[in-house]
From TrEMBL:
<dbReference type="InterPro" id="IPR001544">
    <property type="entry name" value="Aminotrans_IV"/>
</dbReference>
<dbReference type="Pfam" id="PF01063">
    <property type="entry name" value="Aminotran_4"/>
</dbReference>
<dbReference type="InterPro" id="IPR043131">
    <property type="entry name" value="BCAT-like_N"/>
</dbReference>
<protein>
    <submittedName>
        <fullName>Uncharacterized protein</fullName>
    </submittedName>
</protein>
<keyword id="KW-0663">Pyridoxal phosphate</keyword>
<dbReference type="InterPro" id="IPR050571">
    <property type="entry name" value="Class-IV_PLP-Dep_Aminotrnsfr"/>
</dbReference>
<comment type="similarity">
    <text>Belongs to the class-IV pyridoxal-phosphate-dependent aminotransferase family.</text>
</comment>
<dbReference type="GO" id="GO:0046394">
    <property type="term" value="P:carboxylic acid biosynthetic process"/>
</dbReference>
<dbReference type="InterPro" id="IPR043132">
    <property type="entry name" value="BCAT-like_C"/>
</dbReference>
<dbReference type="InterPro" id="IPR036038">
    <property type="entry name" value="Aminotransferase-like"/>
</dbReference>
<dbReference type="GO" id="GO:0003824">
    <property type="term" value="F:catalytic activity"/>
</dbReference>
<dbReference type="GO" id="GO:0008652">
    <property type="term" value="P:amino acid biosynthetic process"/>
</dbReference>
Amino acid sequence: MASLSFLPKPISETSHIPTKLVDHLPFSHVAYRNLSFLGVGSRSFGVKTTGRPLKEIGVVKNSNQTETLVDSQTPDVPVLSCSEAIERLKTYRENQKGKQQFLAMYSSTFGGITTDPAAMVIPMDDHMVHRGHGVFDTAAIMDGYLYELDQHLDRFLRSASMAKINLPFDRESMRSVLIQTVSASKCRKGSLRYWLSAGPGDFQLSPSGCQHSALYAIVIQDQSPFDATGVKVVTSSIPIKPAQFATMKSVNYLPNVLSKMEAEESGGYAAIWLDGDGFIAEGPNMNVAFVTKERELLMPHFDKILSGCTAQRVLTLAEGLVREGKLQGIKVGNVRVEGR
Ligand SMILES: Cc1ncc(COP(=O)(O)O)c(C=O)c1O
């Protein structure tokens, strides 16, 4: 266990609330007084800086500076009614010029489907949001069909079981909800993403205060065709997840995000993880496979990584290629960076 000797004072005496906002927040974000609504095209939506430097607005310090009282006399940030907040969410969405379009969302917390992106939100007290207690999966939408929905749904339920999340409905009802969400979206080409969460309830660690688990699903219009000319990859310096977590599709993707960013920083598309023994494992959101000069298909086995539906499909199709003599064989096992 890490030593706590670096703490200058006992933990009970150490303030976790910044006593001076200007010491703890980037100057450009909050270090000004008179914050007002900013509607259009800003990354720091809702906050506009208007001049005078902030000198501890709304806080009063006691003499030894370990506690901060909040004074409610300085309402610089608007306090909004529900309809005002929704209006602002609408404005935010209308001005957001992202590459992706969100066509429909289902939420078991409001028990329906919406096609209005402003309403595609999940509650802040959902344990998936503040504790990462959630799992997810996807399915491609091709020409109005869901590709391998059942294979993805099986993995989704396996992940939920590993994460100890009870299902809000049975499998058939969830399947039906997913299909109806895609139908309401009118999407012909894109992707369906869906999440099972321990659910809303409180801000504790344990999900015991969550009354129901929650199902969310969203349909995203595809606008970026995959570049089939090939991609550059590097090996990842971010530690690979332990097998227990890598084999389930939980929402804890920070290592995957950092790995992807590491690749992009060096001009690559993805960074590939090696496992603890130095064998090739997987990418941050894809499996990997190789065809050798001897026309053998090599694929890492799935005991420490996610069992990808695409990889499983490749293995099935490869069997046909072996029968046709186009591949010499298929090997699922340890794959070294140097080759075999
Ligand atoms: C870590 C990881 N490995 C592999 C995959 C590939 O899985 P699939 O082929 O089922 O999309 C994904 C997909 O997102 C992933 O996140």
